[in-house]
Amino acid sequence: MADTTTEKNNSKGIIDHLHAALNDEDIGNARDLLAQLHPSEIADVMEGLPGKARTTVWNLIDPEIEGEVLSELQDAVRAELLGNMHPYEVAKATRDLDADDVADIIQDLPEGLQDSVLLAMDAQYRQRLTSLLSYPEDTAGGLMNTDVVSVRADVSLDVVMRYLHLLGEIPQRTDSLMVVEQGPGIQRR
Q: Which pLDDT does position 172 carry in this prediction?
């Protein structure tokens, strides 16, 4: 419990310093302070800032965590940021997120921009997202989590099965394991 309290105090101190750096227009210091925060904390900070300062902070965020920050933002703030991004920027920022998180983000885009972002993604990922987006937002299909673990094509099904046996159990709520494409590394038995 003490560690959690210490982390909260550290984060609060960093956020206070960040606000001061933004007020002083000390961009270098603001960037360094942002790098110390979790994406959800950055989202909280951004939600409390006026538009111009919000844009400044967004431009200072490490591109590696932009998608995570987008997924943590309130819909209105996320929609504002997305409205200023090019489709390839949205695709790039969201490339490492789970498909259900990306679907939530894409739903905040204007319809014409949704298609452009989807076209900027690779075909397999686009197909998975299109499937998710086909469900109305507040239905079971729209709320479901479709996390996927991909295995390199050069790894055989035997190796995957041995790994799963070593784990001793598969993650809770796993409802199926599927081989979706037979490639050179997959052997049928």
A: 66
CA separation (Å) from 188 to 68, 133, 156, 177?
38, 33, 10, 15
What is d(CA 189, CA 186) in angstroms, rounded to the nearest whole number? 10
pLDDT tens for residues 79-136? 889 888 888 898 898 888 887 788 888 887 877 788 888 888 877 777 777 777 765 6
Ordered by start, the domain boundaries in the chain are 2-146, 149-189
CATH architecture of 2-146: Alpha Horseshoe (1.25)
Closest CA to 90 of 126, 43, 132: 126
What is this structure's pTM?
A: 0.65
CA proximity to 185, closest of 150, 159, 148, 162: 159
Rounded Cα distance between 91 and 127, Å, is 14
Print the SS3 string covering the chain.
Answer: CHHHHHHHHHHHHHHHHHHHHHHCCCHHHHHHHHCCCCHHHHHHHHHCCCHHHHHHHHHHCCHHHHHHHHHHCCHHHHHHHHHCCCHHHHHHHHCCCCHHHHHHHHHCCCHHHHHHHHHCCCHHHHHHHHHHHCCCCCCHHHHCCCCCCCCCCCCCHHHHHHHHHHHCCCCCCCCCCCCCCCCCCCCCC
